Amino acid sequence: MIHFVLLVSRQGKVRLTKWYSPYTQKERSKVIRELSGVILNRGPKLCNFVEWRGYKVVYKRYASLYFCMCIDEEDNELETLEIIHHYVEILDRYFGSVCELDLIFNFHKAYYILDELLIAGELQESSKKTVARIISAQDQLVEAAKEEAGSISNIIAQATK
Amino acid sequence: MEQLKTIGRELAMGSQGGFGQSKEFLDLVKSIGEARSKAEEDRIVLSEIEILKRRLLEPDIPKRKMKEYIIRLVYIEMLGHDASFGYIHAVKMTHDDNLLLKRTGYLAVTLFLNEDHDLIILIVNTIQKDLRSDNFLVVCAALNAICRLINEETIPAVLPQVVDLLNHQKEAVRKKAIMALHRFHRKSPSSVSHLISNFRKRLCDNDPGVMGATLCPLFDLISEDVTSYKDLVSSFVSILKQVTERRLPKSYDYHQMPAPFIQIKLLKIMALLGSGDKSASEIMYMVLGDLFRKCDSSTNIGNAILYECIRCISCILPSPKLLEAAAEAISKFLKSDSHNLKYMGIDGLGRLIKISPDIAEQHQLAVIDCLEDPDDTLKRKTFELLYKMTKSSNVEVIVDRMIDYMISINDNHYKTEIASRCVELAEQFAPSNQWFIQTMNKVFEHAGDLVNIKVAHNLMRLIAEGFGEDDDDADSKLRLSAVESYLKIISEPKLPSLFLQVISWVLGEYGTADGKYSASYISGKLCDVADAYSSDETVKGYAVSALMKIYAFEIASGRKVDVLPECQSLIEELLASHSTDLQQRAYELQALLALDARAVESIIPLDASCEDIEVDKDLSFLNGYIQQAIESGAQPYVSERERSGMFETTDYHSQDHHEVPSHALRFEAYELPKPSVPQQASTELVPVPEPSYYSESHQPIPTSLVSERDSSEIKLRLDGVKQKWGRPNYQPTASSSQNTPSITQQAPNGTATHSDGGVGSSSSKPRSSYESKKPEVDPEKQRLAASLFGGSSSSRSDRKSSSGGHKPAKGTSNKPATIPRENPTPVQPPPDLLDFGEPTATSVTTIDPFKELEGLLDSSSSQDGGSADVMGLYSDGAPVTTTTTSVDSLLSELSDSSKGNSRTYQSQTSKGPNSKEALEKDALVRQMGVNPTSQNPTLFKDLLG
């Protein structure tokens, strides 16, 4: 199972964290500090896996952003690497050629997408289309809510005129 | 003008990917982004926390504002600060009817709260309500929250609803319901044990997503209890078959691979089901063979599946054909330039080597390369492989390498692991006792505080007991060498505590035994230890006990003891120590110094650490004394129980005798409530006649105190007596199980010739063939390779050579234990494994030993021929490597085939719309005031681009 997902920039800034196993806030900071120290200092040609405290951390760098996932000893590293890529592709499709800025300012959307992809540390959906469909359903609802709110406020505005 | 600007921004935000937050929030994110140090970032966050605390206290916050505050809280928490002051607002937001707000609320609580947080109880009600909602998106949001927040106690509150949702018309809901149940199962298996049939049902769901999700809980269930799912083997196999035949919708394809994540999950399950089950394995062979043929090893995901196949094959009952295919896949991995694939290859090798030990030989140089690679991860993986293939022929090389590596790293976690592995290997395969002790010294010296205390006790026992043979001379030599090595090490600064304990014990026990070192020399050293590590009470205790032994031996042998002044001052210091343990030891030492030789000898006899000490728990030796005392008019001892009974009867005459026990604490468990008749109820009021637990738990205490004290000196012998020295090892199983019968029959000189032949032919021949074909290989490496791998055909011989040539290295009390160690082979391998060795060897079990020997030699030489062939294959692998490199360049480009797949227009050279989008984004961001060039130009690079 995936214990946590971590997005860290090359400067070591945290862009997104999702914890599937219980960690206290203190442990979280420690984990982030420790891991970003290890991962950011690794050379480009080395393998994308780090053994860490009896777990394995699989990471991949996209532009200036590192995507890291912590998995169990017995999990398949290459598969996890592809789960990361899968996530990035979905983000890419959603944001339209995603860049780090999208994730900085829309981190909550990145969370929503991650929630459709992983649940309780397991991959729940491997079809990009299905994930995209459910995310857009949610977004449409949001849009509809906005319009509704807009029209109500219009009505109120007109009524109070 | 200002207005126009905001309108423009508003418009920009309306577009997809826009930033729907206020200026304030954007500024926050921006300033965090521009912070140059962690301290600056912290300062910004702290002031933001202050702002939010104030804002959240304001009355009537509009909902949209509230939502933003909550997202800001999430941001703060993400940066590692505590946002707990706002948790309650997030909880409140989940109650909102508006889905937009509700979703934000749920997101925030799932990120904020752990499952044991107090606030969860406030959410359960909302979750229950939302699970009943008509809107499936609401249900999904609630299910997401369930998967994070529901704990063991709250499972029953939502369980029935979740089960109902398994039949929801929307597949997204069914899928999440399955995942929620899976989560419940993980949290508390008993809570969902009656629902397991649902998982089976969902396996046949129309929607592949639901089916795929069901595999997660099934994997867990099957790993707990394989037998009850055997009936599903054929279903899994047929699902896998259908997946590989592309029967699933196209949308599940990933990089042109049909539903690879589902395939991997299925392979994992099959590995569980097929292990040790012949019929199940046979069903799988077909589809696994197909997978090897179909898998595209040019993509990462293809390799992921291949790797999973290798794992599966190494778990199920092996089939020669599949093993061959797996070996081929592994060699492709190892020859690849990608470190990832090398890593997987090493891992796969480690798995296959259990089944066919010869496979490693083909890849010796690749393995050596990985071992010397600068990549730490790869190095560690390789050490793991070496650990798996260690045998007595290569143990010295491997353990030396491991120790060198252990010294070089700082990571305590891994250091511990590798130290314990070194110890394990040394215990199991040590070629000589000398080597064993030296190795252990190194391990202790460099990782002493990390190894298990048992290891130290084992080492002490080893030195004390010798090696199970009645060869006192060798034993004393060993002890002397241990003493010498410790005297050399002892003055080094900062030795680990555990190591010092071992040193002190050995010096005390054997320091003067040989007469080479004088008592005052050793005792001086021990005093130095106690002084130098004065804060470590355990070490001090060991040192004082060692001193006591040394003086005792001196006194017993009739020599005059002159206590060194520093010892005297040490003893005096300890007499007043705060530690009662140290104090007692010091007093004992002082008392001992005043005794005569005979008394001392009976207290601490020479070299008696291996004798068992009988503890007389009844203290029967005091009987005479008691008798005497009673005769002279003393009161007989009244046990505590009787005493308390007497106490009651004498002092509480007036009270009803029956109620008395209620005044005492009761330690026994309450009886189970009986559906009782009134009379029974009244009898329960009668006191429980004996508070038996109480007395039992108290009686042994005095004796156990005594024994504890004793054991502080002889502890090492008492624990771990049952412990075995080594576990039977798996790799030589196939070969040596064929050979053990012959070995036991043969005369020792016969085996010697055989082993010589084996070693010579196997190590020299491949080397020469290598040199002829690959002249550029470093001879250093070759030597290493030969020392590591050369033994594989000789491994059959070195097992017994260790029993014949060297003494069986370690032993507890062990004349009986050595025998099982010599042929531990039948323990592990399932009989079918034998099929994979050389058939000749297996067939000749009961023939004339000499013939058999010939047969063995034949088989080993024929094997050499095979390995030479393999070398040939290896060297003419030039075309293969070129293909893999081209593959790798493909792989290394991040925008790989999928990209071309999903958005073909973009992967073309122009990238027109892409750059336009990027420009737009750039403009937008500039508008927002973020200056891209200042800090982080790469921010604007597409992640995939």
UniProtKB/TrEMBL annotation, chain A:
It is a peripheral membrane protein. GO terms for molecular function: clathrin adaptor activity. Signal peptide: none annotated. Gene3D superfamilies: 3.30.450.60. Adaptor protein complex 1 (AP-1) is a heterotetramer composed of two large adaptins (gamma-type subunit and beta-type subunit), a medium adaptin (mu-type subunit) and a small adaptin (sigma-type subunit). Belongs to the adaptor complexes small subunit family. This is AP complex subunit sigma. It comes from Arabis alpina.
Automatic annotation (TrEMBL), chain B:
The keyword Protein transport applies. SUPFAM superfamilies: ARM repeat (SSF48371). Residues 694-706, 730-754, 899-913 have a biased composition (Polar residues). It is found in: Endomembrane system. Residues 59-594 form the Clathrin/coatomer adaptor adaptin-like N-terminal domain. Residues 689-921, 926-945 are annotated as: Disordered. Residues 856-869, 880-898 have a biased composition (Low complexity). One of its GO terms (biological process) is vesicle-mediated transport. Residues 707-722, 768-783 have a biased composition (Basic and acidic residues). Pfam families: Adaptin_N. Keywords: Golgi apparatus, Membrane, Protein transport, Transport. GO terms for cellular component: AP-4 adaptor complex; endomembrane system. Gene3D superfamilies: Leucine-rich Repeat Variant. Coiled coil: none annotated. Subunit of novel type of clathrin- or non-clathrin-associated protein coat involved in targeting proteins from the trans-Golgi network (TGN) to the endosomal-lysosomal system. PANTHER family: ADAPTIN, ALPHA/GAMMA/EPSILON. Adaptor protein complex 4 (AP-4) is a heterotetramer composed of two large adaptins, a medium adaptin and a small adaptin. Belongs to the adaptor complexes large subunit family. This is AP-4 complex subunit epsilon. It comes from Arabis alpina. The lineage of its organism: Eukaryota, Viridiplantae, Streptophyta, Embryophyta, Tracheophyta.
